[in-house]
Specification:
By secondary structure, the protein is an alpha+beta fold. It has one domain: Carbonic Anhydrase II, CATH 3.10.200.10. The protein is 14% helix and 30% strand. It is built from 5 helices and 16 strands. It has helices at 6-16, 45-48, 54-57, 161-167, 226-235; strands spanning 65-66, 70-72, 77-80, 84-85, 88-90, 95-98, 104-107, 110-120, 126-127, 134-142, 147-156, 184-185, 197-203, 211-218, 222-224, 252-254. The strands form 3 sheets. Strands 2, 3, 5, 6, 7, 8, 10, 11, 13, 14, 15 and 16 form a 12-stranded mixed beta sheet that branches. Strands 1-9 form a two-stranded parallel sheet. Strand 10 and strand 11 form a beta hairpin. It starts with 5 loop residues before the first helix and ends with a strand.
């Protein structure tokens, strides 16, 4: 396991401390190593470590195929994102950008601070069976320690300026965070103009698969070029957990 910058490790641990779990998006110790295929792949996550048992025993697991969503009078998501110095790492499972404090969302009376965002190829969630080539997961935490993830699905189309900007600084070495001097990003630029959403209670999509995560999957996808997807796919041909059973969960959507 390679050494990690203290500020990145602190942010990751803080994000998941509410679940009393190990970092979900960082690299695991050798005894708890996990992958997206083979003997350490998703089918075996629950047996790799005691802390990962929820991956096989949990009943509110993510991702899901979003079907039969019930229209409901849900509050709009208020996005209050500001530019952040770029802090980027290839942690061996995804490309992750750690965000500076001060950006957040509000949903009704609840406020969640943005901690980081990362990518999956192809998108982990589906909508009525439809798959997407890429998704960004924006990970937030409330003052009470509850996690909320905003998922921005992406479809093939025109180039995405924020994706292009981030891809310029993809780390050449796994596990080593890069913070290029004077470079900032604003994740607000990743959001589509229409921000209706699907919502449900689920889990982290990687070990330790902790449950109790509130998911907000934006109904309108953003656009990304095929070449931009291809750049990420060369690093991660498949960093997607298989779909999980709904198990009777209520899935709602904005009207």
């Amino acid at each position: 396991m390679q050494a990690r910058p203290a500020r990145f490790l602190l942010a990751t641990l803080t994000a998941l401390a509410c679940a009393g779990s190990l970092p979900a998006f960082g690299q695991a110790t050798p005894a708890e190593h996990w992958t997206y295929e083979g003997e350490h792949g998703p089918a075996h996550w629950g047996a790799l470590a005691t802390d990962y048992e929820t991956c096989k025993l949990g009943t509110l697991q993510s991702p899901i195929d979003i079907r039969g969503a019930k229209a409901a009078p849900l509050p709009a998501i208020g996005f209050a994102y500001k530019p952040s110095p770029l802090q980027i790492v290839d942690n061996g499972h995804t490309v992750q950008v750690t965000y500076a404090p001060g950006s957040f969302i509000t949903v009704g009376e609840k406020r969640y601070e943005l901690l980081q965002f990362h990518f999956h190829h192809p998108a982990e969630e589906k909508v009525n069976g439809k798959s997407y080539p890429l998704v960004a997961h924006l990970v937030h935490k409330s003052a009470e320690g509850k996690l909320a993830v905003v998922a921005v699905l992406m479809v093939n189309g025109k180039p995405n300026p924020i994706i292009a900007a981030i891809w310029k600084f993809l780390p050449g070495e796994k596990g080593k965070e890069s913070a290029p001097e004077g470079v900032t990003v604003n994740v607000a630029d990743l959001l589509p103009a229409e921000r209706g959403y699907y919502t449900f209670i689920g889990s982290l999509t990687s070990p330790p698969c902790s449950e109790g995560v509130t998911w907000f999957v934006l109904k309108t996808p953003a656009q990304v070029s095929r070449s931009e997807v291809a750049v990420f796919a060369r690093l991660f041909p498949n960093n997607t957990r298989p779909l999980q059973p709904l198990n009777g969960r209520l899935v709602e959507m904005t009207k």
